[in-house]
Structure formats: structure tokens, C-alpha cells
Amino acid sequence: MNGSDPDLGLFGPGSMAWRMHREPAMLLGGLRALIVQALHPLAMAAVVDFSDYESDVWGRYDRTSNYVNTTIFGTTAQALAAGRRVREVHVPIHGVDAVTQRPYAAGDPVLLLWVHAVLIDSFVTAYDRLCRPLGDGDRDRYVAEMVRQAELVGLAAADVPASWQANVDYLASQQAELQATPAARRALDTILRPPLPAWRRPFWSMIAAAALSITPDYALSMYGLRRPPLSDALLRPSIRIFAATARRFLRPPPVIVAARRRAAEAGSTL
Q: CA-CA distance, 46 to 104, in Å (whole number)?
């Protein structure tokens, strides 16, 4: 790339990352990820001890969404800066989990890998079941691409699953570590019933039910939940219609608008 070429970031318009994350339905993947991630007691301890997520629900959602969008659609410099900020925030976050009495640190590669792998699994599941089916090759391409995002928070590429099956196998290996602790259950309640004006609650209930409809069976079982019975017949088609409407009429985040402009300058499309 010479100095006059637009910076298309870590992925670019031909990537699976750009193709998948431009879809509004990926919000459901993010919610699913939070539900599953909370089952790791050490990851949850770091959130409880050093976060005000219960009193700043929407601020945390916004920061997480902005991070994902910036690292995928931003310039290389923007993505690297976002990763650097996350690593800096993680430095003072360490302690002892009150449930397991085990030490934790937000920058621990073990916890970073758990968070990353659940995100990848959740985004693939959301796209596959709420947008359009993915073939094995496209799943593998996406998982391999997202190793770049894992490196931003300090993980070594060699330690990160680079194929769909490797990611599935890793998550299966972690199930013995998981617990539906009181903190995890509070996090679940916050995800399903965040602070909202009354008129918005029915809409969020549909969003939450759709997220539960794609949550893995083992996680639902640990929380003592059942899959919403109308998920296939009603929820998923409704979410698809909502996502298609949002994609057509709502202005995308500024970082995606900027990515489209840079892609156009490079002769590509998003």
C-alpha cells in the first residue's frame, strides 16, 4: 500500500468480517456472548469487582459495540488504538474471586481467550441462524480472520483457534470451568431486563428472547432456562424482518459509513 491508498483496516471489503458485521442482527450475537461469557466465574468476578455495568448498562453496550465495529471497520491505526486502550484498562483489574477463591486478572490469556472464543461462536451462530446460512469454508475464513482481533488485546496468534472446529473444541474443553454463580444470574437478569422506559420493554423482550433462542443448550441448562417455544415459528422471522428493515432505513454507525467511503475510494464496495 502506498501513501495515497485508503487504509482499509485489518480486514477490508472482501473479508467475512466486513460481510457479517454490517448486519444489524449481529447485536443478537453480542447479547448471546454476554450470556455465555458470564458463566466463567473468573471472567464474571473481574466484571463485578471493577465495573459499574448494572448502573451503566447502555454505556457498556455502546463501548463494546464501538470496540467491535472500530476493530473491524476502522483504519489500522484506529483498530490498534482500540486494542491498546483495552490492554491498558485491563492492567489494574485483578483480584480473588469470592466464589471460587481463585485469583483472576483481566489480562490473563486464559480469560482473554474465553471471551474471544465465545464472541466468535456467538457471531457465527447469530449470522448463520438469523441472517443466512454459512458454509464450512466461510465459517473457517471468519474464525481465521478474527485471530487478528484477538491479537489486539494481547493474545498470541498461535494460541487462538483459527478454524471453526478448533473454536468449537476449545469451548467444549472449558465447560467444566463454568458456573451459574449469583453474579452470573444478576448479569443475565440485566441482559434480559435492562432499564428501559415502559414503551420499549416489549421490543427488548423480543430481542432478549431471540438471543436466548440461539444460546447453547448447556448455558440455558445451567441458568435453569428453557428455549423460547416460539423461537423458530415467530421470533427468528421477526428478527430477520427487523434486521432487513434496519439495514435499509437506519443510518449505520459512523465507522461503517467511513469504511464504505474508503472502500469506494479503493474501487470496492461494502
A: 7
